[in-house]
Design goal:
The chain is mainly alpha-helical and 153 residues long. The chain contains six helices and three strands, in the order ββααβαααα. It has a three-stranded antiparallel beta sheet, with no helix packed on it. α3 (83-101) packs parallel to α5 and α4 (106-126) packs antiparallel against α5 (132-144). The two termini are 32 Å apart.
């Protein structure tokens, strides 16, 4: 079973390779970008586009990690969504990308709902000072409403 989780990895010539990477900090050859495009259907704040892109890249190319690489990200708070909107889109895109990339099977459905439980638990560990119930509510609302967002008209 292919995974939507970077913890599924193996060794290749002493370097780690992945089926996907949960991080937008990646470098690709032009050939990769010409072969696999970003999903332009992702709406609003395109959360998980990095996972989707690298997952589809891994079907054609090897994804290698360079542990000693240094990346500087100049983060800006300008034009950022509020936490509820982010968690809503996290739910929407989590379900959309699962439906788009994974084969329909009982084991994949179990794995998906297990990952949903993992996100919910993560909200309680990350948001314990804020309102984790609100984060969970927004995420579940996104899971329920993904068809409304991505329905083809």
């Amino acid at each position: 079973m292919k995974s939507f989780n970077p913890s599924f990895r193996g060794k290749f010539n002493g370097r780690e390779y992945f089926s996907e990477i949960m991080n937008g900090n990646m470098v690709c050859r032009r050939k990769v970008f010409n072969s696999v495009l970003f999903d332009e259907n992702l709406r609003s704040y395109a959360l998980m586009e990095d996972i989707d892109f690298s997952f589809r890249v891994s079907k054609l190319f090897k994804i290698m990690q360079v542990p000693n690489a240094f990346i500087f990200h100049n983060y800006s708070n300008a034009n950022r969504l509020d936490i509820c909107s982010i968690n809503f889109m996290k739910g929407v895109n989590h379900r959309y990308l699962f439906k788009k990339n994974m084969k329909k099977s009982i084991i994949n459905n179990i794995a998906f709902w297990w990952s949903v439980l993992g996100y919910i638990l993560l909200f309680f560990t990350e948001s314990y000072k804020n309102n984790p119930y609100r984060s969970v509510k927004c995420y579940i609302r996104g899971l329920k409403n993904y068809k409304m967002i991505y329905e083809k008209k």
